[in-house]
Write a structure and sequence with these properties.
Keywords: Magnesium, Metal-binding, Methyltransferase, S-adenosyl-L-methionine, Transferase, tRNA processing. Pfam families: Methyltransf_3 (PF01596). Homodimer. The chain has helices at about 5-10, 15-30, 35-50, 65-70, 85-95, 135-140, 175-190; strands at about 55, 75-80, 105, 125, 150-155, 195-200, 205-210. It is α/β, with parallel strands linked by helices. It has a single domain (about 5-210), classed as 3-Layer(aba) Sandwich (Rossmann fold). Strands 3-2-1-4-5-7-6 form a seven-stranded mixed β-sheet, sandwiched between helices. Helix 4 links the parallel strand 1 (about 55) and strand 2. The protein is globular, with a radius of gyration of 17 Å.
């Protein structure tokens, strides 16, 4: 039995005015941010893990970074975004939040960022950027997570496209979906990680480093 949207929404607490403004901005300007059920679930799992540092790949306008910082009052977040206009919006929104002193925004392509400019370790990595590049993001940044750390990957369901036969996927998205499926098969079989898929939001993959 599928749960109704109204029933799911009944478990989502109200957000502050800044977050509501960001949600409206994202909808009006077609900026992808985490679905409410997804971010609430992620934050609850993060509260259990209680990381002191998180690296986020894909800032967009800073929504998830702010949400994670609000949920984890002792956590510092470094977030990377390559889109110049989104970086500007993210910095503006973050500056208006009460967690601005714990969020650092780095402008640049996450695949080209100099690892030497980042802290040597992060308790968690959250990947929510170009879906077709998830394998490359994971391979580059997983080394920063020590055993016992966690990598979180959003949009694994990709609005239902990941569940389709590749011939049913719009042609312009086929390479991305193929890459996403290749990544999911690879990580689920990887001996160094205990991974599980959570059907919340647009699909959240959680990988615990052994």
């Amino acid at each position: 039995m599928e749960l109704s949207d109204a029933y799911i929404a009944s478990f989502i607490p109200e957000r502050d005015e800044l977050l509501m403004e960001m949600e409206r901005f994202a909808e009006q300007n077609h900026v992808p941010i985490m679905q409410l059920a997804g971010i609430e679930s992620l934050n609850q799992i993060l509260r259990i893990q209680n990381p002191k540092s998180i690296l986020e790949i894909g800032t967009a306008i800073g929504y998830s970074a702010i949400r994670m910082a609000q949920a984890l009052p002792n956590c510092h977040i470094v977030t990377i975004e390559r889109d110049v206009s989104r970086v500007q919006y993210a910095k503006e929104f973050i500056a208006r939040s009460e967690v601005a002193n714990r969020i650092q925004v780095i402008e640049g392509d996450a695949l080209e960022v100099d690892m030497g400019t980042l802290p040597s370790t992060f308790d968690a990595v959250f990947i929510d950027a170009a879906k077709g590049q998830y394998m490359k993001f994971f391979e580059k940044y997983a080394s920063l997570v020590p055993p016992g750390g966690v990598l979180y990957i959003d949009n694994m369901y990709m609005h239902g496209l990941s569940d389709l036969d590749i011939k049913e996927v719009p042609r312009r998205k086929r390479t991305m979906i193929r890459n996403l499926k290749t990544f999911s098969d690879w990580i689920m079989a990887h001996p160094d990680y205990s991974s599980a898929f959570f059907p919340v939001g647009d699909g959240l993959l959680i990988c615990l480093k052994r």
